[in-house]
Specification:
Mean pLDDT: 88
Oligomer: single chain
Strand content: under 5%
Shape: globular
Helix content: 55-70%
Low-confidence stretches: none
Structural class: mainly alpha
């Protein structure tokens, strides 16, 4: 539970609380990103720059995680809904599925300001050499969005639900975990 904190962790700083909640999901999204890159390579897709593809996958995954967690830490359950809405908006505004010039004007306006656009452009550069010379720019913008999301999450200090240590457990638990 992202908004629960054990009583023993009540005196920790907000950054330490965020880090505690993000560590396992960060490891999982990194593993997922590496598996996707491996799977695409196993399907026979060749990369112009394999190192950039891996770096882009990892950075993109961590940025999206930071953005979602920042929204959750600040807005609570409403942050989850905001993250979902942002995901849907990004799908239309990223220019990944079809040219952004064909999208409605609203999507064209926000196109350059959403993280998926930066990720798509960085992947296009790493995979095929598109946007030559702009890879660093795309990655810097993506990293700035990630850092900004972490800083935004630091504002969420009032959203923690402190519970006794013995009551702090995963939301889903098996019969085996209750015996232990």
């Amino acid at each position: 539970p992202y908004q629960q904190l054990p009583l023993s962790g009540n005196k920790t700083a907000q950054f330490a609380r965020m880090l505690r909640k993000a560590t396992v999901p960060a490891a999982l999204v990194c593993l997922q990103a590496l598996l996707v890159v491996w799977g695409i390579h196993a399907l026979g897709v060749s990369f112009q720059s394999p190192a950039q593809v891996i770096l882009t996958a990892l950075c993109s995954s961590l940025t999206f995680l930071a953005l979602v967690l920042g929204l959750i830490f600040v807005f609570g359950a409403a942050g989850r809904l905001m993250a979902l809405i942002l995901l849907v908006i990004q799908l239309g505004a990223s220019g990944g599925s079809y040219p952004i010039e064909l999208a409605p004007r609203f999507f064209q306006i926000i196109h350059q300001w959403i993280p998926v656009t930066q990720s798509v452009n960085a992947f296009r550069n790493a995979l095929f050499g598109a946007y030559e010379g702009q890879y660093v720019h795309f990655m810097l913008v993506l990293c700035c969005i990630g850092v900004g999301s972490v800083l935004f999450g630091l504002l969420g200090t009032r959203r923690w639900e402190v519970v006794p240590d013995q009551d702090f457990k995963p939301l889903i638990s098996s019969a085996r975990s209750k015996e232990i």
